[in-house]
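step 3/5: co-fold with S-adenosylmethionine
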Amino acid sequence: MINSNIVASNFSRKSSSYNIEAIFQKDIAKKFFKFSSTHSNRKNNLNILELGCGTGFLTIPFLQKYSNSNFLLSDIAPGMIKENKKTTSLLRSMQNVNYEICDISKNLPSGHFDFIYSGLTFQWVSELDTLFEKINLALNDKGSFQFSMITKNTFTDLQKSFKLCNIEYSGPKMVSTQYVIDILSKFKNLKHQIVTYNEKYSSVMQFLKRIQQTGAGNPNKTHLSPKSLKKILKTYQNNFAESNGDIIVQYEVLFISAQK
Ligand SMILES: C[S@@+](CC[C@H](N)C(=O)[O-])C[C@H]1O[C@@H](n2cnc3c(N)ncnc32)[C@H](O)[C@@H]1O
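step 4/5: write tokens
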């Protein structure tokens, strides 16, 4: 079970290393922005809400695209909001931008919006169907909703290693792309794209350290004992590493564009 307080604290503590370490997230933000532009014909003067704004990988291109709009930027982690304020300071001075600390697994910021977007955040929410209901209610008529999220076929070798060791997987429980598409049935003009992405690491330890450095560490109260961690590292390395010891980590990311 995801513990929101732990998620907020993990991301806040790593907010300053996120900009440097989050290479995959930066690349996906660029790809998602391209996808978003292909599927949107919105003009300016909009009320816009970003969920899980992080340090601003998506905030920056959307602020540039929708000048003369009102932005509400929200995140659960105060540290992320602090970094976002730094990276967007020049752009913000020209626009009406507000911030709100908010746990979207409980509530959305109040208000009505023409456009709601989010990047790589919804995998941290356990009850996605409830979240989509709330987003639908918060959108104005014909409002747009676009997001990216990490889905089930991600970190498959890590998940298999936990299973081989008989230890419960400690990352967020990821859902399938089809599940997400199915629960969006209330929305119109649904478009999607599935992106697969590989990263190479020289060891399993290097990969796990990168996860920690981007704030995406264990969201549960239960901690892995050093003995269990050692067992998982060994199992992963022995079963899934290439002959030179490198490992290839797979991500599956779903891009969605929809309308109320
Ligand atoms: C992987 S980062 C993505 C940040 C940014 N959107 C990007 O594309 O780089 C995930 C973000 O979601 C935020 N987050 C996680 N769970 C959340 C929740 N329940 N409510 C709001 N924000 C949340 C984290 O604090 C973090 O900033």
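step 5/5: annotate
The chain has eleven helices and seven strands.
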